[in-house]
């Protein structure tokens, strides 16, 4: 974020938290336990990945034999598959991942599954295979950014209770790397809720990343969502470290945290162990997790990777903007010089190889007659200039807003006000930091003859955006999901209506909500895409209420996308 997360957001607490809520852990009985639930992922028409973690009573245990059962009913009276010979191996942190690729599952069918080890049976999960052929509709939950100390995962409880759900699309920031010091990210809320990161230090080693993944998967609401439907996942930055790029990260200091590539390798190994995703393809690098899912003849979902393959280092205002004398002789940001740097033609997020792959996938989906192409993308793609607050509020109002902020936050906000008055972007870690790469992507859309639905996470805010290229031609519609529990800048700046200000300041932004936490329920039919932006009333207590904050739709016509309308 332009207002730095590490500096600004780590200080945001859960002011007014009513009571402390501790994580509920499963009691361990017998030789083993299934403390981390079950999960499925990467569904196809005849297969899916099935995942669990077996907790041995003895941490020094050898590999534990495991059985997977898949049935067409919750009582397991009608068994479809029984896979033996599986193993929870200490070399993989006792996680189990099994791919039923092509082994007897039917398209568009819901199944129930469970694991058995040492006479102990796991919780039961549900999974639906992808449809084949004529598909009247699809219902998908879109999620992102779940900070364990940041608040309760109430949105996952709401997702688990949905009557209709085909899959969950997770756009990254499944875990966060920060520690449990009082000033670490989210710890004001974490201390109030008794949600303390484990281990208590910033995670760097393989053992650290494994322990953090394990803690997240003890959350009962997250377990319930995983048990409800298959997850289709990509990582963002915090699965490794904040604001990562292909050769480094803002939150990695080699002098104290060692070799970056070693840290990244440890993080990715733990991620593949603990997430219900297919293993890396032999002969390809582990970072290449881009892949496609087809929902019958209705839609194709292309999940892209925007962090570890093609992304160059982010620009920052602190390091990359220079000052020049203003009209009154006082220094002001040299916006023109900065914009020349930001618009350098080599700046990119995807890289040529991934963009070429995406172009082929989009074109193939179009040729197959599917009306919808969706892009599972980590960061906001729209052009979003920071709001010129000086033109929206009186000096007295601005002074009042700043006066209520902690000194460190006040300095950041004051700096942002000066930058945004020059028309500069709100978030340089998003596609706005890579405009040349974005324009190349838009050309890829055009060459493939599609106007896709772009899905975005990372921002901790809800967005509805109409995307346009440099010539002003509409190329796509974007739905950005808010976070499950991670804070947004709005949480730090009081009553100033940041989302409304971003809407007013930007032609591409149709709606922005910087306050609500929740998820998007995306429903597709051959002629309409409907996005319900669902917010939860609180992330600091139970019970809570889930309700639609706003609902938008876009029609699919022979000429392309229709208008994006609030309904």
Account of the protein in words:
- With 567 residues, this protein is α+β, with helices and mostly antiparallel strands.
- The protein has a single domain, classed as Alkaline phosphatase D (PhoD) (Purple Acid Phosphatase, chain A, domain 2, 4-Layer Sandwich).
- The protein is globular and about 80 Å long.
- The model is unreliable at 1-29 (pLDDT under 50).
- Keywords: Signal.
- This is Alkaline phosphatase D family protein.
- Residues 36-129 form the Phospholipase D N-terminal domain.
- Residues 140-533 form the PhoD-like phosphatase metallophosphatase domain.
Low-confidence stretches: 1-29
Q: What percent of the residues sit in helical stretches (DSSP H or I)?
A: 10-25%
Number of strands: 28
The separation of the N and C termini measures: 30 Å
Structural class determined from secondary elements: alpha+beta
* Order of strands in the sheet with most strands: 13-12-11-25-26-27-28
CATH architecture: 4-Layer Sandwich
CATH class: Alpha Beta
CATH superfamily: Alkaline phosphatase D (PhoD)
What would the average pLDDT be, to the nearest integer? 93
Q: Using the coordinates shown, work out and report the CATH topology.
A: Purple Acid Phosphatase, chain A, domain 2
Beta content comes to: 25-35%
Question: Secondary structure elements and their pairing?
Answer:
Elements: E1 32-33, E2 38-41, E3 49-53, E4 55-56, E5 64-71, E6 79-88, E7 95-99, E8 110-117, E9 120-121, E10 125-128, E11 138-143, H1 154-160, E12 167-170, H2 187-193, H3 206-216, H4 220-228, E13 231-233, E14 244-245, E15 248-249, H5 254-257, H6 260-274, E16 291-295, E17 299-303, H7 317-320, E18 323-325, E19 331-333, H8 335-342, H9 352-367, E20 372-376, H10 395-403, H11 407-420, H12 435-448, E21 453-456, E22 462-468, E23 474-480, H13 498-505, E24 509-513, E25 517-524, E26 528-536, E27 546-557, E28 560-566
Parallel strand pairs: 11-12, 12-13, 17-20, 20-21, 21-23
Antiparallel strand pairs: 1-4, 2-3, 3-7, 5-6, 5-8, 8-9, 8-10, 11-25, 14-15, 16-17, 18-19, 22-23, 22-24, 25-26, 26-27, 27-28
InterPro entries: Metallo-depent_PP-like, PhoD-like_MPP, PhoD-like_sf, PhoD_N, Phospholipid_Metab_Enz, TAT_signal
Protein name: Alkaline phosphatase D family protein
Signal peptide: 1-27
């Amino acid at each position: 974020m332009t207002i730095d997360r590490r500096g600004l957001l780590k200080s945001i607490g859960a002011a007014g938290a009513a009571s402390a809520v501790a994580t509920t852990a499963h009691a361990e009985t017998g030789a083993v336990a299934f403390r981390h639930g079950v999960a499925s992922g990467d569904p196809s028409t005849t297969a899916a990945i099935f995942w669990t973690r077996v907790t041995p009573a003895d941490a020094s245990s050898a590999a534990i034999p495991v059985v997977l059962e898949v049935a067409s009913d919750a009582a397991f009276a009608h068994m479809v598959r029984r896979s033996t010979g599986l193993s929870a191996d200490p070399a993989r942190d006792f996680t189990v991942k099994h791919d039923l690729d092509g082994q007897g599952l039917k398209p568009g069918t819901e199944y129930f599954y469970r694991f058995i080890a040492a006479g102990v049976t796991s919780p039961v999960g549900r999974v639906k295979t992808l449809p084949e052929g004529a598909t009247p509709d699809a219902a998908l939950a879109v999620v992102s950014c779940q900070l364990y100390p940041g608040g309760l995962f109430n949105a996952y409880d709401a997702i688990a209770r949905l009557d209709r759900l085909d899959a969950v699309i997770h756009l990254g920031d499944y875990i966060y790397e920060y520690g449990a010091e009082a000033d670490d990210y989210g710890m004001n809320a974490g201390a109030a809720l008794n949600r303390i990161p484990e281990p208590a230090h910033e995670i760097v080693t393989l053992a650290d990343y494994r322990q953090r993944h394990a803690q997240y998967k003890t959350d009962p609401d997250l377990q319930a969502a995983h048990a409800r439907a298959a997850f289709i996942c990509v990582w963002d930055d915090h699965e490794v470290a904040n604001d990562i790029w292909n050769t480094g990260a803002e939150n990695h200091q080699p002098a104290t945290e060692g070799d970056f590539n070693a840290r990244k390798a440890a993080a990715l190994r733990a991620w593949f162990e603990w997430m219900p995703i297919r293993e890396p393809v032999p002969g390809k690098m582990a970072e290449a997790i881009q892949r496609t899912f087809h929902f019958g003849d209705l839609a194709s979902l292309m999940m892209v990777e925007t962090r570890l393959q093609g992304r160059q280092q982010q620009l920052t205002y602190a390091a990359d903007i220079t000052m020049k004398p203003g009209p009154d002789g006082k220094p002001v940001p040299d916006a023109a010089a900065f914009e020349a740097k930001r618009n350098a033609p080599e700046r990119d997020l995807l890289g040529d190889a991934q963009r070429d792959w995406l172009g082929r996938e989009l074109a193939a989906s179009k040729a197959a007659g599917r009306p919808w192409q969706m892009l599972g993308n980590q960061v906001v793609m729209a052009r979003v200039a920071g709001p010129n607050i000086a033109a929206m509020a009186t000096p007295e109002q601005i002074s009042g807003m700043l006066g209520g902020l902690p000194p460190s936050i006040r300095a950041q906000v004051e700096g942002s006000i000066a930058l945004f008055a020059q028309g500069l972007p709100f978030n340089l870690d998003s596609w706005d930091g890579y405009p040349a790469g974005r324009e190349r992507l838009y050309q890829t859309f055009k060459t493939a003859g599609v106007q896709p639905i772009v899905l975005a996470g990372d921002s901790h805010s809800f967005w509805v955006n109409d995307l346009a290229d440099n010539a002003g031609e509409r190329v796509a519609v974007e739905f950005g999901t808010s976070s499950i529990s991670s804070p947004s800048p709005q949480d730090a700046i009081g009553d100033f209506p940041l989302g409304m200000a971003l809407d007013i300041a930007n032609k591409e932004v149709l709606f922005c909500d910087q306050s609500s936490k929740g998820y998007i329920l995306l429903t597709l039919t051959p002629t309409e895409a409907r996005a319900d932006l669902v917010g939860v009333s609180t992330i600091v207590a139970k019970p809570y209420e889930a309700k639609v904050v706003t609902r938008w739709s876009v029609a699919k016509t022979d000429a392309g996308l229709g208008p994006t309308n609030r309904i």
